[in-house]
Every structure is written in structure tokens, then in C-alpha cells.
Amino acid sequence: MNKSTYIKAIEWGRTKSSGFTEDEILGISEITSAEQKIISRHCRNALWNENKERPPKNSMFTVLNSNRLIVTLESEFNYINFLELNHARKNAKYAFILSVIAIVVSAIGYFL
Fold first, then answer.
1. In this structure, which long-range contacts are made by residues 19-27, counting pairs with CB atoms below 8 Å and at least 24 apart in sequence?
2. Exposure class string for 80-112: b at 16+ Cβ within 10 A, else e
3. Domain residues for 49?
4. Cα 17–chain centre separation
5. What's the structural domain count of the chain?
6. Could you tell me how far CA 65 lies from the centroid of its own chain?
7. How confident is the model at residue 100 (pLDDT cuts 50, 70, 90)?
8. What is the pLDDT of residue 67?
9. Pairwise CA distance, residues 61 & 70, whole Å
10. Quick one: pLDDT band at residue 111, thresholds 50, 70, 90?
11. Over 90: is that where the pLDDT of 84 sits?
12. What share of the chain is helix, strand, coil (3-state, %, to 5)?
């Protein structure tokens, strides 16, 4: 499954407890130039949001200190929901396979 830009950025950002700069996160090897633009916009929005006198802009990051960014709590929860959804999908596929096998065994038992 291809991971979205947001998931890639959140996964990387979660590992940086002391925060990160825009240049550091844009250096992720697995992101494309189009994804870099999206992440850069979120970084700029986080810095914009630091000034409380302006209306906030949407960002998956927030400023920790001196222009170092961290992943927001909302992004953390979205990431947890993503992991839970993936786990549920895998379990659903496995349950479907087991139910098909049970039906086949039941049908064979019926005709024997």
C-alpha cells in the first residue's frame, strides 16, 4: 500500500522528539518533489500559526521552540486511526478467507 504524504511525514516526525526543521523533514529520501511542496506548506503554516494575532492555518506540525517543529496531537491521533484502520482491514481479509473455508468445509460435509 502506498503511504500518503501525510503518513510519511508523520511517521518521520514522530521519531524526532526534540523537533526538526523544515530542511530536515524535506530531506526524507522517500518523498517526491510534489510531496515536498505539501510538507513545506505545512511547515510554513505552523510557523504562521506561532503568531497568535493571525487566524490559524491548517498544519500537521506545530512550533516547539526557535523554529523547530513537532507533529501536532491531532496528527498523532490521525496516525493512530490510520494504523487501526489498516489492522482492521487485514483482520477483515483474514476473516473473509476463514469464512470461505468454513463454507467449503460445510458444503463438503453436507454432501458426504
1. 19/64, 19/65, 19/68, 19/69, 19/70, 20/68, 20/69, 20/70, 21/67, 21/68, 21/69, 22/69, 25/69
2. eebeeeeeeeeeeeeeeeeeeeeeeeeeeeeee
3. 5-111
4. 17
5. 1
6. 23
7. very high
8. 83
9. 5
10. confident
11. yes
12. 65, 10, 30
* Stated pTM of the model: 0.75
In this predicted model, what pLDDT tens digit does every residue of 20-71 receive, in sequence order? 999 999 988 888 889 999 999 999 999 898 887 888 898 999 998 878 999 9
The candidate with the shortest Cα–Cα distance to 87, out of 75, 99, 95, is 95
Question: 5 with 38: CB under 8 angstroms?
Answer: yes
Q: What is the 3-state secondary structure (H, E, C) of 29-64?
A: CCCCHHHHHHHHHHHHHHHHHCCCCCCCCCCCEEEE
